[in-house]
């Protein structure tokens, strides 16, 4: 049982702990702050294998039973948030297949590309609204509002719901502890239930209205699935991309050589986004899975009925897969697991890439010399075990020339 994970030092910089664990083996037992005992996979080859293994399942009913029982046995709170029910992220086929097929047409590369003009406009507007000669928080005023606005417009969430949605979402990610996550779970569920009812009564030209109509068409989408899908889209649709944009901007503060190269040759930015996805891994730990049978990982057997997580930052910096893994290389062949692997590969990957590319392209074109205003060691990471990123990134966008 390792105690190297989930400490304050780990949250500050997980890579020293993950590096040591990788060197000691591909999978380790650990305990989450909630007291849930888990197995954590930390190398690239094992991560790909586990993410594609049908014996490592996601059925939310059985998963919920296992997690609640383990939490209760450990003296923890056995209640789980709404993220653990009714959405395709915690479903196996055939339910997963049915829900993913329903959504897939809205997240194809071609369909997402049609959003480019709107994302370009939103990005330009956000940059226009920020002062350029005094300190501004690039997370608060850029990295979060861009993907939040895009996903809320896509779904049809009104502007009045977006501020509380962000708070609920951050609490669901564990920013304020387990009790706050459960409270947020109830509040966001109530809000979305009312929003779904409003869309059913007066549908609009948005994705949530389309999903509501689909739920009324035979048995394609149950009410619980509609609610769970909406919750998943609004939370996953902005949290990870916000982390990517903020972390990428912070990386380029420190890596001035790479920044200069991207400013000089903006056509490299799409490839740079993939490399920054690998280096920053916006998702820290995959959502929970459970073993339906004993599973051999390296030299270790994970018994049946155990909870399994995959550390994407560990897999994405595995030197057995990536040469010189802690450095930026825009010419590096792809192969990262930032969007997962297998059946549950992130359906929103094309949208995240589009938003990340546009955000960096506009930021670097408009403010190529943006400068941090606090030492790197003073930046505060997010307090989530699920997503990565910075709580704030204070910068001056256009500092005076020396």
Automatic annotation (TrEMBL):
This is Cytochrome P450. Belongs to the cytochrome P450 family. Keywords: Heme, Iron, Metal-binding, Monooxygenase, Oxidoreductase. Pfam families: p450. The keyword Oxidoreductase applies. InterPro entries: Cyt_P450, Cyt_P450_B, Cyt_P450_CS, Cyt_P450_sf. It comes from Saccharothrix lopnurensis.
């Amino acid at each position: 049982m390792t105690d190297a994970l989930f400490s304050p030092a780990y949250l500050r910089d997980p890579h020293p702990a993950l590096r040591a664990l990788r060197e000691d083996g591909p999978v380790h037992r650990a305990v989450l702050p909630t007291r849930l005992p888990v197995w954590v996979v930390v190398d690239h080859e094992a991560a790909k294998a586990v993410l594609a293994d049908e014996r490592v399942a996601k059925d939310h009913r059985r998963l919920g039973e296992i997690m609640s029982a383990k939490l209760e046995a450990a003296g923890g709170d056995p209640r789980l948030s709404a993220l653990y029910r009714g959405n395709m992220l915690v479903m196996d086929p055939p339910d997963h297949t049915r829900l993913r097929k329903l959504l897939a047409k809205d997240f194809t590369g071609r369909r997402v590309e049609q959003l480019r003009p709107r994302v370009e406009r939103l990005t330009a507007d956000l940059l226009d609204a920020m002062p350029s000669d005094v300190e501004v928080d690039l997370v608060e005023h850029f990295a979060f509002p861009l993907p939040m606005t895009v996903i809320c417009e896509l779904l049809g969430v009104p502007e009045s719901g977006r501020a509380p949605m962000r708070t609920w979402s951050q609490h669901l990610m564990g920013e304020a502890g387990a009790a706050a996550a459960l409270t947020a779970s109830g509040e966001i569920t109530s809000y979305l239930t009312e929003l779904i009812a409003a869309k059913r009564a007066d549908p609009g030209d948005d994705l949530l209205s389309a999903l509501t109509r689909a739920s009324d068409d035979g048995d394609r989408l149950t009410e619980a699935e509609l609610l769970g899908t909406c919750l998943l889209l609004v939370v996953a649709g902005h949290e990870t991309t916000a982390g990517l944009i903020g972390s990428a901007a912070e990386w380029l503060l420190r890596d001035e050589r790479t920044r200069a190269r991207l400013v000089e040759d903006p056509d490299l930015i799409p490839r740079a986004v993939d490399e920054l996805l690998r280096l920053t891994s916006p998702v820290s730990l995959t959502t929970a899975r459970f073993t339906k049978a004993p599973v051999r990982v390296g030299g270790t057997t994970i018994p049946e009925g155990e909870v399994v997580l995959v550390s994407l930052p560990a897999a994405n910096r595995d030197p057995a897969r990536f040469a010189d893994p802690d450095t930026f290389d825009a010419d590096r062949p792809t192969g990262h697991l930032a969007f997962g692997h297998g059946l549950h590969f992130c359906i929103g990957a094309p949208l995240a890439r589009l938003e990340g590319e546009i955000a960096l392209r506009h930021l670097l074109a408009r403010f190529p010399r943006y400068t941090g205003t606090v030492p790197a060691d003073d930046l505060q990471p997010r307090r989530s075990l699920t997503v990565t990123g910075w709580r704030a990134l204070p910068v001056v966008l256009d500092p005076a020339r020396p």
